[in-house]
Each structure stands twice: as structure tokens, then as C-alpha cells.
Amino acid sequence: MSLAEPAALPVATSAPPRPQILRRFSTRFKASLPAYLLLLPSLVFLALFTYGAMGRVLVDALYQRATPRAPVRFVGLDNIAAVLADSAFTGAVVNNLVYAVGTAIPSIGLALLFALALSRTNAVTSALRAALFLPVLIPMVAASALFLFIFLPNVGLLDYYIGSLLPVLPNWLGDSDIALYAIMVITIWKNAGYYMLFFLAGLQAVPEDVMEAAHLDGAGPYQRLRHIILPELKPTFLFVIVIATLNAVTQVDHVFVMTKGGPSNATNLVLFYIYQQAVEHYDIGKASAATLLTLAALMGLTALSFRTMANREGGS
Amino acid sequence: MLFSRRLTLGLAIAGTLAGALAFPARAEGPTEIDLFFPVPVDGKLARDMGTLIKEFNEGHPNIKATAVYTGSYDDTLIKTRASIKAGKPPAAVIMSANFLLDMQIENELTNLDSLIAADGTTKEQFLGQFFPALQGNAVINRSVYGVPFHNSTPLLYINADKAKEAGLDPSKPPQTWAELTDWAKKLTKREGDKVTQWGIAIPCAYDYCGWMMETLTMSNGGRYYNEEFGGEVYYDTPSMLGALTWWNDLVTKHKVHPPGATPGPAVSTSFISGNAAMMMLSTGSLTYVRDNAKFNYKVAFIPRNVRNAVPIGGASLIVPAGQEADKQKAAWTLIKWMTSPEKSGWWSRATGYFAPNMAAYKTPDMVEFLNKNPDAKTAVEQLDVAKPWFATYKTVPVRKTLEDEVMLVLNGKKQPKEALVAAQKAADETLKPYNAETSLKLP
Fold first, then answer.
1. Predicted local distance difference test score (pLDDT) of residue B75
2. pLDDT grade, residue A5 (50/70/90)?
3. Among partner residues A148, A175, A281, which is closest to B260 by beta-carbon distance?
4. How far is residue A314's CA from residue B93's CA, in Å, rounded to a whole number?
């Protein structure tokens, strides 16, 4: 833009407002040039590793080969139709919904409980906070390997302790009715401490004077929670819900380590389904189509939640 | 232009760095090759592989081989395919033996015939070094695509102490399904409805489950797949129905086998802890059992219903397609060295897999080892009745269609017959494109 400017000047005989706008624009551009230059490295990497990959997925989703040795050809939306018609995909979506709801609600509930219990800072609560935060520090893969031993049927730690209470010892990860819930327990254990941090931060923002006034007015602990603390925590809730939902779609390390989506696809989640299509079926077209669908859903969700947050900010 | 000088300097540095990365200095030196290797059993293998490659490099100054750990068998396939796509394939890979056909169909393998011919040997002479049972997974359309490196067969492991306790003679292990069922019943201990000791455990997780189904089907007289053509599997057959029904009976009728799908490590842990008195597991676990069992154990052939037959397992060395000629040659030197009788035997003793090279069992070290550990002999003896591991177009998804249904049966969700019909239908669907291009492509 700034390079084209000198060439535009000589023809400006009747002095229309355009060059002036151009000049103003170019001065503004010059002023912000360093900022753009500073952003450039991250933009380059974002383009290379995020938008580039997304573009590639978009292209790959439109191509398919008819037979193993045939070259790929353009098939339009056929791949997306094939994914939607695949019972393994719809199964994975249902599993993922159960998993998202079943991990988000308990872990957020526990996180809030922990945060309320440990909101005052002293030596004891600091130690307890650290203890509750510990699972976050353990990599998911390592945690899954540990839980593999805890869930071992008959000889695992879990059966060792509660085995005598149960009439029949369940095969925690091998029973298609139980496996998904076993996986969910790990996610809740791992994430509750993380979400607790956000609620602890949120609780710091609850105005002291309002709390004090409520106290003087004779509001009990429940009333203070219901009418002051929870409304004040609303943005935190929104944020944590978004994070928890994204985690439910993107964190599938334990599925890889513990069940590989089995038994009989009972723990197959959407991201693992994509992995299976790409790697086991070697079907890049279908894998890309499933990725596109997931991306669209996640982007829709993120946009929705950001709008809700923005609306709330504007409203208050 | 406040930023200009600093910016120019920065750009200059960045440019130099980029140049250095893009055009590395080409030094005259040994041919550098990568070997991708998986660790399917436990971490000790990675150290053993380091030792092996170090010895190779010391003996071959004009080649510098680097062993690259690539995870499980499945991960190794992924990483190999990714590097082929990126145009930088490794020179050699230790690849699960039943992935070779699928890779050959996808044009990802180097035909090794010309490398064998360049050595002045015939294909027959070259293949003649290895146990005949291993050749089926290495030869495709009469061309050699893989060299067997470490292999296994399934075995019946028996807790000899528990057998004696139950009045059974561990020196005469069960030879038929009827005898095995009888043993399992006698070895199961109950407290009311709760089982405190299982008679037998057979693993069923993705990968293992298909292998065990092939084992049971073969000992029931059947075949899992068409050994000559990658477009057919035989799921909905009497022999496989018999196999799955018996497995299901052990769980639901006789109640001597734990319900649900249990992965291999859980089965071996259960056996080691005394919770399962017998198990069917790979010979690859033999070293683990030998090192960890605190009781006398006994290994035996997989019992038969119709005939004694088992599939092989394990991995072969391959050269991915698209490799430069000098690296190909270096890789071939490495492969021949690694599969020589001495190295083959050394690797077998370190891991528990059997050595594919028959001459390995004539080396003094191996003779001594077998005298000390007679249980390692059983796997080798069973090779007489071993046959290839199932390999089809898209082996993994085709296998998974069966495994998903078997898991449903073991969980009491489906009857064997309807499960096998469903598995057959799903597998046929996956194999359809390949058949359209081969068996159903008519003039």
C-alpha cells in the first residue's frame, strides 16, 4: 500500500479526497507497522500450524479414492455424508455427549465445593489446595497408566478395597456398560482441582463490602451463597463450562492408553474416531470430514459462549 | 525508522539460521540410516536394541545406523507412513508381520528380490534360513517383502502348583478343548457366587483379541482369512462359530473364565498373582512370567478341538518404498546382520520371542540356554503346526470388526452366531473397494 502511494500522487490534478484518505491510511499504517512486524512471527506460525492445517483438512475432506490403487478424486460432500452415516461416528458423538455432561457437571460441582471450602488462605487450606491440585500436574498418559492398575479386575487396587462389598467383581474397563464411566471418573479426578483454581480466583472478586452488608443484614450462609456469591461467579462458571466442554472433546489420552475406544466402541470418543479413520482405516478423506464437523461444532460453541460473555459484560 | 537497524540485524540472523537448516553441510562420511523399532512388550527391549545397534556400528565403519523408538506396533505403522508421506522414509523398520500385505497393497514396501539376487543367493536359499511357518507373512505374490526378526506363537500357561493342589498332573497338560474345560472347572474356586480363582483367562483387547480368535478357530480346524488373497475373511463359518461359542461357554455356561474383555497385561498380572490358574498368552510373555512367577509354572501347546494349529505373531524387518539406493544397500546390510543366527539367538534370549533363523538354535549359546530353560523349547516345537498371521487389505479395521463383536459376546450382549454374521458383514464392507479392483474386476 505504501509503495503504491508515490505513483498515485502525480495524477491527482483536481485534488479529490481519495489521495488524502490514502495518505492518512498510509500514515496510520506506518505508525502501526512495528506492531504488525512484532505480530508477524506468531502470525506466521499460526498460519503454518493452525490455519494451514485447517485449510489442508478442508481440501482433504473433499477428496476420496474409489479403490486402493486409484488416484484420489474430487467427491464433494460425499465424505461428510459417509461420516454422518457411519454408526461408529454417531456412537462416538453420543458417547462424547454423555462424557461431556458426565464429566463437566461433577468436576465443576466439586471444584466449586473445594473453592468455597478453601477460600480463606492459611497453612492448612494451602496444603489442601496443593493436594487437590496435584492430579492436574500428573500428565494424563501417566495418570491413565496408573489407573490401568487401579482398575485391574480382581487384583487391582479398587477391587482389593471394595471387592468384598460387591456381590460380583466388575471388569471395570472390559465391560461395555461400565467402561465409559470408569474413564469419566479419571477425567473428574484430574480436572476438578484445575477448575477449583478458577473458582478461587472468582471468589477473590466477590466484593467484601457487599458480603459484610449482607452479614449485617442477617443473611445466612446459604442466602449469601445463593444471592451474592453465585451471581458474582457467573462469568467464572461460563468460562469453566467452555473449558470443560473443550476438554471433553480434546483430551482423549486416557482412551488411547486404557481402552483404545473399546470394548465394542463403548469408550470411543470423537477425536479417537478421527484417529482411527486416519490411522487404522487409512482413510484421510473421512478423517478430515469428521475433523471438519468437530471443528465446526467447537467453533460454534466457542462463538456462542463468547457472545454470552460479551452480552453479560455489556449488560452490567 | 527506529526499528530498522535492529530489524535488519534480526532478519540477517534469521536468514542465516534458515539457510543453515535448509542446506546442512554435506560431509563425506558413513551412510547414515534410521531404523524404526517398536517395543510391544516392555521397556527393557529399548536398551537391548541400543546394545545391538552399537555393536553393528562398531563392526561396520562405513554405515552409521540410528535406532529410533517408535512406540507400539500400531504407532510404528503410523510413524512409518507419516515419514513416507513426508518423503523421508526410514531405511528399515521392524514392522508387525501382519501389516506387510496392507503396506504392499498401498505401494509402501520395497521389493527385496533384487537385493537378494545382488548377493548371489536365490530366494529359496534366503528364505530357507527361516522357519517355514514365518514365510507366509514375508512373501507376497512370490516376492520377498520382509525378513522375519522376532516371532511368537500363543501358548497355554499353567500354574503347576495350583494344578497339583486340584489333583491334576501338570506334567500331562490338557491336549483337547474337552480336557482344558475339565481342568478349568477343577481350577475354579468359588465363595458363593463370587469367583476367587478363575480356571482360565484368555485376553481380548484390540489386536490380541483377533489373534486369539485366529488361534481358537485354527485349533477348531478353520482358517481366519484367505492366505493367498487379501480380500476375504472367514468369520461366518462353522469353525469360527465353534471357537467363539466355546469361549463364550467358558464365560457364561461353565463360569470358569472372567467375563468381559480383558487386555493382555491384565491377564498376565492375574496369572502372576494367582488369580487365574491358566492363561493363553504369547510366547513373548515367557520372559516376564519366568522373571515374576513365584510358583512353578508349565507351558504347553494350545489344546485342539479338531487339530493342533496356531498362528504366528511378531515382527519382520522391512525397507519402506522411496529410499535412496545407497541407504537401501546399507539397510540391507543391517537387516542381514540382525537376522543372522548369532544376533537372532541373542535377541531371542533377551526378549523371549523365538529366533526366526533356524540356525540360531544350533549356536552353542542357544543350546546352553535351552538346556537351562526347557520351557523356551515349547514355542519352537509348536512351530511345526504354526501358520501365518491373518493379513488382509486394511488388516486393522477388518480385524476390529470381529473384535468388537467378540467383545459384545463376552459381555453377554450378543449370541455368537449373530455376532459373527454382523462381523462378516462389516468386514466384507471394508474389503469391498479392494475386491472391486481385484477379484471382481472382470474383463
1. 84
2. very low
3. A175
4. 60
Please indicate, yes or no, if residue A1 is contained in any of the structural domains.
no
- Report if residue A10 sits inside a domain: no
The residue-averaged pLDDT of A211-230 equals 88
Per the structure, the count of domains in chain A is 1
pLDDT higher than threshold 90 for residue A67? no
Q: Look-up: residue for cell 490455519?
A: A51
CATH number of the CATH domain containing A278: 1.10.3720.10
Chain-chain contact of A262 with B404 (C-beta, under 8 angstroms): yes
Query: b/e map of B182-205 (b: 16 or more CB within 10 Å)?
Result: bbbebbbeeeeeebebbbbbbbbb
Q: Region B153-164: what's the mean pLDDT?
A: 96
pLDDT at A283 over 90: no
Under 8 Å CB pairs connecting chains A and B tally to 111
Decide: B349 and B258 in contact? Cβ < 8 Å.
no
Q: What pLDDT does residue B23 have?
A: 46
Taking an 8 Å cut-off on Cβ atoms, the answer to whether B7 and A279 are in contact is no
- Is A282 part of the contact surface with chain B (CB cutoff 8 Å)? yes
Q: Is A66 part of any domain? A: no
Res A312: pLDDT: 62
Torsional sign, CA A14, A18, A23, A24: positive
User: Would an 8 Å CB–CB cutoff place A311 in contact with chain B?
Assistant: no
Give me the amino acid identity at B196. T
**B107 contacts in chain A (CB < 8 Å):** 69
* Chain B interface, best mutation among A147, A159, A265, A280, by max B CB count within 10 A: A280
Mark yes or no for CB contact B434/A68 under 8 Å: yes
Tell whether A76 is covered by a domain: no
Question: Is the predicted pLDDT of residue B8 greater than 60, yes or no?
Answer: no
Q: What is the span of the domain harbouring residue A118?
A: 86-282
Query: What secondary structure does DSSP assign to A178-234, as a single string?
Result: THHHHHHHHHHHHHHHHHHHHHHHHHHTS-HHHHHHHHHTT--HHHHIIIIIHHHTH
The partner residues of B188 in beta bridges, in order of sequence, read none
Cβ of A106 under 8 Å from any chain B Cβ?
Answer: no
Given CB atoms, is B15 within the 8 Å cutoff of chain A?
A: no
Tens digits of per-residue pLDDT, A139-159?
999 999 899 888 888 778 888
**Above pLDDT 90, what percent of chain A?**
42
Confidence class for position A3, pLDDT limits 50, 70, 90:
very low
Backbone torsions φ then ψ of B157, nearest 5 degrees: -100, 135
Backbone angles phi and psi of B34, in degrees to 5: -110, 140
pLDDT given at position A307: 80
Residue-wise burial string across A253-289, b where 16 or more C-beta atoms lie within 10 A, e elsewhere: bbbbbbbbbbbbbbbbbbbbbbbbbbbbbbbbbbbbb
Q: Which residue of A has its CA nearest to B108?
A: A69
CA distance B411 to chain A (A): 6
The arithmetic mean of pLDDT across residues B242-255, rounded, is 96
Q: Does B321 touch chain A (CB under 8 A)?
A: no
Cα–chain center distance at B9: 55
ipTM exceeding cut-off 0.90 for this assembly: no
Out of A66, A152, A176, the one facing B413 most closely (by C-beta) is A176
